[in-house]
Amino acid sequence: MSLRERNLLLDLQKIMMLLAIQTLHVWEFIVYEDSFVVDGSRILQTFQWYARFFSLGGQVLVGAIFLLFGLREKSRQSLLAVCAFTLLGQIALLLAFMENGSFLFEWDIYAYLFTTTLLLIFIPRKNIPIAVMAFLLLWIPSSVWQGVFPPGLVGDILTGRTGEHSMGAWPLLPWFFHALLFFQLGTLISSGKLEVSRWHRWETFFWPIVVGFSLPVFGAFIMTPIGPHYYSFTFHQSPYVFWGNFLPYVLWTRVSFLDQVQTWAKQKRFLRWISSLAWSRHLGLSYVIAVLYVGLGAQFDQVLIKNPLLLDVFYLSVMPVTEIIARGILWLKNKL
């Protein structure tokens, strides 16, 4: 397959992760409890188990995004445009969490994306040693980084230590290296230094070994709390637990690039439809719209909690309403 073609299985993986993330967002913005019970809810109550199973969806999505950035050889100007867009996302988060007319800044996904993307502009591409270094640095536990940097605003943000402006979400150490690794892999694939369109004989032995490596800890994130302690749990497990649960997604991504798999995927109408969604093709825009939409719903959190049927309807509306709004904006943009 041409590397410029859409990877349909990667689009499917992204949608699966986004469904989990939007479930987490609705729960976080409206319920905000670590326990997993909302009396009377049927749909959200059921899908929170799905969200917990895919609670690494954020890391999976970031890996896929930066892999595609590298694969498409985004220029430095394009990466600066991404930085500008993440600032828009940060404003959306500030609006979503505004209380009594005041804004509360908290280090989260958009601040992480802005800083990470900005740093990538200055790092050499298509560099195998940098990719290896990034992979190795991801094996350093969060507790080690927290021991290096003293408490305070900078140290808390860098290492994910809980503080006034950090709840442990997306610390640059070690998660900058997560984006760096996948960005480098994308550039190596685009340059031909990594061949992914065919299956190599050594992979037949390699992947069963790493899947076996994953089995002892697979499912460790199923008990993820999705309230106040979500970030401190999800982003600060031991590297072995993280990789043991993350490697299956890496295998999915690797298989998705095989020519015969892409040929099969193109024949499936459902996969072509998934790939045509604004959620797939315009993820950044769709994500910002969803943050604002769920943030708007959070203004009526007590009403929704007291009316679980209404809460379920609101939850079910998030992704389709976002899709409709995103398509409307894109249609208007094309008209203008």
Question: What would the keywords be for this entry?
Answer:
336 residues, mainly alpha, 69% helix, 0% strand, globular
Strand portion, in percent? under 5%
Low-confidence stretches: none
Largest beta-sheet details: none
Helix content: 55-70%
Q: H/E element string? A: HHHHHHHHHHHHHHHHHH
Count, helices: 18
The rounded Rg comes to 20 Å
Question: How does the overall form come out from the CA principal axes?
Answer: globular
Number of strands: 0
Average pLDDT level: 91
Q: What would you say this structure looks like, in words?
A:
- There is one protein chain.
- By secondary structure, this protein is an all-alpha fold.
- The chain has 18 helices and no strands.
- It has helices spanning 8-31, 43-53, 57-71, 76-96, 109-120, 128-137, 142-148, 153-159, 172-190, 203-214, 230-234, 239-256, 259-266, 269-276, 278-281, 283-298, 301-306, 308-335.
- α1 (8-31) packs parallel to α16 and α4 packs parallel to α16.
- The longest helix has 28 residues, at 308-335.
- It starts with 7 loop residues before the first helix and ends with a helix.
- The mean pLDDT is 91.
